[in-house]
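Handout, page 2. Input:
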Amino acid sequence: MRRRLELARGMMHHPAVLFLDEPTLGLDPQTREHLWEYITKLARKEKMTILLTTHYMEEAELLCDRVGIIDGGKIVVLDTPKKLKDKVGGDRIIIRTKNPRIMSLKKMECIKLIKQKKDVLQLIVREGGCNLKRILEKSGDVLDVEIKPTTLNDVFIHYTGKQIREADAEGDSGKG
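Output:
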């Protein structure tokens, strides 16, 4: 209820710019969905600029026209969600196959990267869904397939790294 009240208070005067700091933090999934819908409608109807801070990449992708990723107090990248995902890579296709035919896959222009671990191939591809049939035909005896599209979580980790930083994890300022 507090989140709803804070949001309502911020919008009472119909500002041209609305700042929302982690607006869905601590909300249950139903309330979060309703709030997302409301923010989207509000931005369109009122032609309002909304600046949103969030740690939920799904939320940023859903609500934002442009996303900025901040690391160490600096904006490291700023673009549309689609362009950010395109910059980082493509779809990941994970194929479990009896007889992997890597050489035939390497000839395909749509495949950016191939990693093999025993009978599992991990491919990074442009437009995985569009090329899936051709990829599967050239992969060997396919037992299992999984497609994972690039997400803003992938983008965030790409630009900020995978390691947990001790100062961040402990809330320490690094002084001491």
